[in-house]
Design the sequence.
């Protein structure tokens, strides 16, 4: 009787591990399919706003360089406010797409 209980426990464990592996494989498969999907790539291509760089100044303050269309903006962020330091910076580098 004890051998049957051990066998049931082992088969149950193997079944659960198999379901977990199947789920992981399915998630990876769907991720690859979505990356190759032209509709999904088309939706991501038309972003007008992107964060180019973040530089931490200290524990509370940081500089943020963002690009909107072809114009870059430098913003100082702190917990209480945000200040635009420089705007209308013309983009010199190629757009990362």
Sequence:
């Amino acid at each position: 009787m004890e051998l049957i209980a051990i066998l049931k426990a082992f088969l149950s464990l193997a079944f659960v591990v198999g379901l977990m592996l199947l789920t992981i494989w399915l998630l990876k498969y769907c991720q690859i399919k979505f990356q190759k999907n032209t509709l999904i790539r088309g939706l991501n291509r038309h972003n007008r706003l992107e964060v180019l760089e973040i530089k931490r100044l200290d524990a509370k303050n940081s500089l943020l360089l963002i690009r909107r269309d072809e114009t870059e903006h430098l913003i100082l962020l702190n917990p209480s406010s945000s200040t635009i330091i420089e705007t209308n910076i013309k983009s010199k580098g190629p757009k990362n797409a």
